[in-house]
Hints:
The complex is a heterodimer. Chain A is mainly α. Chain A has helices at about 5-15, 25-55, 60-65, 80-90, 90-125, 130-140, 145-155, 175-180, 185-195, 200-210, 215-225, 225-240, 245-250, 260, 275-295, 295-305; strands at about 160, 165-170. The longest helix of chain B has about 35 residues, at about 25-60. At the A-B interface, α2, α5, α6, α7 and α10 of A face α1, α2, α4, α5 and α6 of B.
Amino acid sequence: MSTTTAPVAETRRKKARPHSLDKRQSPLSVALSTVLRLFLALIFGLPLVFMIVSSFKPDLQIFADLGSWNAFLPVGELNVDNYLGVFERVPFATFLMNSVIISVATVGLGLIVNSMAAFALSRMTFKGRKVILGVILATLIVPFETMALPLLWWVNVLPWIDENGLSQGWLDTYAVQIVPFVANAFSIYLFYQYFDSIPKELDEAARVDGAGWFRIYRSVIMPLAGPAIATVAILTFLPAWNSYLWPLMVVQSEELRPAMVGIDYFKQLNVSWGQIMAYASIITVPVLAMFIAFQRAFINSIASSGVKG
Amino acid sequence: MSATAAATTAPAPTSPTARTSSHNVDKRSGSTALLMLLPAGVLMVTFLIIPIGLTFVLAFTNARLISPEPAKFIGVANFVRLFENDTFWKSLINTVVFAVVVVPVQSAVALGLAVLINTKMRGVNFFRTVYFLPVVTSMVVVSMLWMFMYQPNGLINALLAKFGILGPDWLSDPKTALFALIVMSIWQACGFHMVIWLSGLQTIPGELYEAASLDGAGRWQQFAHVTWPGLRQTAIFILITITIAAFSLFTQVNIMTQGGPLDSTSTVVFMAVRTGFQQQQTGYAAAISLVFFVIVLAVSLLQRYLTRDKEAGR
C-alpha cells in the first residue's frame, strides 16, 4: 500500500512510450505476432459476437449454424422474436429499471460518501486518523463472499423505518441492495490517494478567503478530482450492475429484482437459447457500448486500481 | 505552507485548549472531519465490520435465518459437523484446484496479452479493446453464454467435430466440469489483469531496454532481466487479487452446474450460500465462511510474506 501515485506521475507514465523493439524486429516476427493477436481477438471476441448474432435467430437455425462460420454471421432468418419473447416472459422493463436505479444510487451515493471520508482523511488532522486509514486498508483484503451470509442474517434483524413505523428486517427492499455497498474501502483509498496529490496550498488559499473545510471539499478539491471521480464511478458501477449473489439472496419480489437475477427465469423448463441470448445481449450491450465510448477512462481506472499492492 | 504546518503540528483538535483566532479553522477541523467521516464510518461499521465480527460469533451458534427462537451457543458443533462432511472437503479441494490452476495460468495469459499489445503499432488499441470485452461483460452473462457453448451439441463440440473429436458433455461429466469452469473463468477475467500488467510494463523506462540490447541481450534475456524485475510490484498485486477472486468462485457454479455433477464443481462459497441461504442455517454457513475467511487470510499473508521476504534478501 506504500505506493501513492500523483496524477502528475500518472500522466507521465501514460506518456512514457512503450519500449519500441519493433524497429529491430524481423518482418517474420512482426507477422507472427500480428497473426497471434488476430487469433486471440477471435477467441475473446467471437463468443460475444455469437451471443449477439444468435439472439436474432430462431433456435433451430442457431443449432443448424453451429457447424460453420454462419454461427458468427447474421445470416438466414433474422428477426426480433427472441426479444419479444423476453418481454413476454418476464417483466423485463422492471428488471432493467431496477438495475439502473440500484447501480446509479450505489455509484452516486458512493461518490459523495467516500470522497468526503477520503477528504477528511487526506486533508484534516485529527486523533486516530492513521488508525482509521489502517482499518480501511485492512478491510480491502476481505472478499465480500466471506461475510455475505452473516450479512444476510444481519440485514434481516436490522431495524427499518417504513410507513408503519419501526419494523424489523431489510430484506426485499431497494435499500438492502444499495445501502450496504455505498461505503467502499477501495473507493475511499482511491480518492485518498488522489486528494493527497493535490497541493495543500490550494486549501490554504481558500482558507485565507474564509472558506470552511466543507466549502474547500466542495468547491476546491472535488472540481479538481475529475479523474478520481471517473475511476471510482466506473469501478463501483460494474460490480453494482453485475451483482448477482446478493440480490439472489435478499430479493423475493419480482418488482424489486435486478436484471442479472432475472436471467434465472430462463433456466427453467424448455430452455429457449435464442431468448437467453437475447436477454444476455440486452443487459450486456449498454455496458459494452459505454465501455467502447469511454474506453480510455475504463482502462485507466482498471490500471489505477492496480497501483495498490 | 505555514497553515498546513500549523495544522500538522497542532495538538489534537479534540482537546479543549483554547486557541488564538488564527487557529479557528483547526479548532473546527476535528468536528468537521468527524462529520465528513460519519456517513462512510457508520456504513462501514454496519455493513462491513459488524458482519465480519458476526461471522466469528454466529459460527458458534445454531442461528437460523428466519427463526422464532433466539440463537443458542453450541460451541464448535458446526465445525465438527463441517469437518465430517464430505461435500465440504470436496468443495475445499475444488476451490483449491481452481485457484491453483487459475492463478498461474490467468496471470501468465494476461501477461502474454499485455506484452503482445505493448507496442506502438497501429491497431493495437483495437486488440486491447477486444481482449478487454469479456471483462465488462457480467459473469452472469458469460456463464449463460458458455453454458450454451458447452452444451453437448453446442458451439465448442461443433468446433471439435471439425477436427474429428467427439467432445464430451462438458458440464455434466464430473471429469470435465471443473475444467470447463476454469477455462471460461480465465477467458472472462484475463483482460482485466492484462490492463494491470500493461500499466506495469509502461512504467519500465525504454532506456533500460536500449541499454540491454546494446549489451547484446536477446528478447528473452531482456524479458528475464529487465521486464520481469520491473514488474515485481505488479506481479504481487496480481497474484493476490487473482487468488482472492479464485477462492471466491461462486457465480459460474451457481448458474452453470449448481455444484454438480456429484459435487465435482461445488466450492466453499457455493456451499456457504446453499446452507446459509437455501437451507437457512446461518450458524453453519457462518462456520463455513469463517473457515473460508481464515484460508483466504492465511494464503494472502503467506503470499505477502513470501514476496516480501525475497525482496528483503535482494
